[in-house]
Amino acid sequence: MSAKNLDNLGHNAKFLYGLILPCQNYVLTPMMVNKAYRYELDPNNRQRSSFHRHAGVARFVYNWGLDQRIQLFKDNHGKDRFTDFMKQHKLLNSLKKTQFPWMYECSKCVPQEVLKDLHRAFQNFYRGRKIGKRIGFPRFKKKGGRDSFRLHGTIRFEDRKIQLPRIGTVRIKEKREKYHKGRILSATVRRRADRWFVSVTVEEEIPDPTPLSRQAVGVDLGVKALATLSDGTIIANPRNLGRKLRKLRYLHKSMSRKKKGSKNYEKAKLGLAKMYLRVFNIRQDTLHKLTTYLAKSHSRAVIEDLCVSGMMKNRKLARAIMDSGFYEFRRQLEYKCQWYGTQLMVAPRTFPSSKLCSHCGHKKTEFSLSEREYECEQCGLRIDRDLNAALNLVAASWSETENACGEEVRLLTDSMSLEKAASVKQEPNIIHDCNV
Predict the structure, then answer these.
(1) Is residue 156 located within the same domain as residue 225?
(2) Which residues, in sequence order, are CB contacts of 114 under 8 Å at separation 6+?
(3) Residues with catalytic annotation?
(4) Which of 123, 137, 219, 322 qualifies as a FRET site for 231, CA 20 to 30 Å off?
(5) At what angle do helices 85-96 and 45-75 cross, to 10 degrees?
(6) Residues in contact with 89: Cβ distance below 8 Å, sequence separation at least 6, in sequence order
(7) Is the pLDDT confidence value at 13 over 60?
(8) 267 and 394 in a common domain
(9) Structural domain containing residue 383
């Protein structure tokens, strides 16, 4: 598009020219996607001990590989300061018989996958340094933090049971049989509180997503309301962490008064972990229901590119922002829009969605966060702040931002009872002299 044509479209079209469209191209053939399905396991005591051993091997190999990389970087120069996954795996296999014979009790897949994860962590760290993005240096793992390990090989389901390499057949707490189809790539076993889960990565073929012929929607995320849609729908914020703060403080205080290493300390620690798991499950349930509804019920979804790290600097709102899960909302919405054929648009951070009037397009110079109602000085519009932002998002996503009369198109429904000035003819009135 030329600069001359771009100027003729108006300021909203200029904004549209800078939109990020991660899901605008539809695939004409069936897609092969990787999906993860999580099941809760019901292991016996022997299998539970095997889980702990595998998680211990994964933690040990990760710390061993990280320590070796650090020592190589300190003791050598040039290219000798770096290593990769294959070199570390060969070295570990040569030392396993003499120094780590207890590792043979677990599956050989665990060290391989752990060293791959470590190599990927260093790649992300160095890549982040090149582009100027802050990505933390890989850290050592400690016992009891996040016990997990990944397996690949012969993994199959048998009547509410799953067969894992070297561990055997483990019961599943699901009351139904497997609800996935496709080829199983790997299985990740993870412990949350006192519960064990298995996430099965499956390569599935999904049908070609057909574009929906339904209305577009603008989504404005917030703290008071989790999401405000352009059609007037308000999704309440469940405040998962805020409602459990009193109970969490009590559990933290109870655990701090116990002697470390004692059975009472472990019981208090387990109770605290269960409460955090409950908060996590409620948050995930809310976000999954919201993103699935947006992806299935609308042809286009427009969101903002929020700077969550910058918003976290406000110490009064940092906890509420983390509790809302803005990043997780966008992550889920991106892949679900690809599955269901919904077009996802991400507005740049510079777009003033809250300062623009959704009726006449007037822009305010200053608009504090404490003002929850938008009042336009030009047309007198009074509207909720979040709803006004959502309307601006969905209006700016349309390619046609001016009608035939040259005025801006605003997507306001008749149910809002807003009056708008009538369109007038744009051609100059020419009076012909009949005597000439």
Answers:
(1) no
(2) 58, 61, 62, 65, 149, 150
(3) 220, 304, 386
(4) 322
(5) 120
(6) 111, 112, 115
(7) no
(8) no
(9) 3-11+351-412
